[in-house]
Design brief:
Chain A: Its cofactor is [3Fe-4S] cluster. Chain A: This is Ferredoxin. The complex is a heterodimer of chains A (about 70) and B (about 400). By secondary structure, chain A is of the alpha+beta class. Chain A has two helices and four strands, in the order βαββαβ. Chain A is globular. Chain B has a single domain, classed as Cytochrome p450. The chains are: A alpha+beta (about 70), B alpha+beta (about 400).
Chain lengths: ~70, ~400
Amino acid sequence: MRITVDAERCVGSGMCVLTVGEVFDQREDDGRAVVLRPEPPAETWELVREAVDLCPAAAIVLSTDRRP
Amino acid sequence: MGESPHAVTTMPTARQLGCPFDPPAELIEARQHSPISRYTFPGGKPGWLVTGYDLVRSVLADPRFSSRKEFMLHPTIDYGDIEIPPAPPGEFLLMDEPQHSRYRKPLMGKFTVRRMRLLTERVEQITADHLDAMEKTGPPTDLVTAFARPIPAIMICELLGVPYRDRGSFQEQVDSFMNGETSDEDLIAAYTATQNYLAELVAAKRANPTDDVLSELTDSDLTDEELQGIALILLAAGLDTTANMLALGTFALLRNPEQLAALRADPALADRAVEELLRYLSVAKTFMRTALEDVEVGGETVKAGSRVILSYNTANRDPERFADPHVLDLRRQDGGHLAFGHGIHQCLGQQLARVEMRVAFPALVNRFPTLRLAVPPEGVALRPETADIYGVKSLPVTWDA
């Protein structure tokens, strides 16, 4: 699993940080989401998917990591 | 097209007697018929009422639906064809992109999860002060004035930089915007007084910046008028919403003693309890959008220019989304309630509200293990359905001193 955030879409709700704080954070200056762990450990995947669903701006994109 | 869609003729003005926490029966019934119903606005203008979770969420996320103030229509009062002016500068709740972003962007960094969690200790202190005062005065007391209103009010005022001495009169004015029982004349007077006050406040912050959000914002390209509008939105949202959640939430806990006991017994339940109270009570109960083009919603075509009333409280009680939706269950696992909305307008202050409730509810129920209503439950005065934010007017409580 690989995570990217579309910073332009982000509205700074903080739902991703609230849901899975070890994977997401918010920038101090503008509150936009940043990905702390773009390739999150498997035990967080369920919460990451929840964060994707909860994001009010649909700003979090998941992709499959293509590397071996 | 198949059969004609379900229709709701008028927005209910009251809840069922004895069900102060449940959406009006008419709206629950509408959702049972269909997640989207036809709704005719006074004066005969056709529109829609959306009551189902999935559809409310999808409309909120859809940029083809506008939040602009000038498109708004009162759901129950016919004002004829008077033209509504666009939202004043800074009042970004009632704007679309790109105007909305101009105001939300500079605020986003000031309401982050981390920044709000740093306020936990301050919330704990304010909460303890108010519980001390309740203990000192002794039972009975009105929980609204002793507890529910002052805690969020002090927090938002400190955050924005509203001097404490100005808080009382200011809060009264904001309350008159929200309580659904203020005459138009008094509304205008309260609005004017608030605007004058905020104009002075913004000027003062520009002249002598202090350590607060409003002062920080003077260091941007926002004009005084814009800052005034932003301050109005933030204060109004911060003063009334959480206050009503705290008071109505306490009422709900007192009416569900096994849930209250669970919260008391297990401090780890607090986060989940707050989310469940948000879902169950949905005090910000309806919002409106206007279709900018023809949009298909749940199999119906919402024509360009049609208004859509979104019922958050029935969406948050949708059995297709939440099991046993009318049961308050603090251990509930299914998240994703719409109490703070969805889409680009989702509540900016939600992380502050969470911190406040997360601290205040457990502190209250633990300080007063015998807390109970001081009147029969039917005697608790409720806000009318016409109020933008639902809640109790007062909550007489008592305890064994």
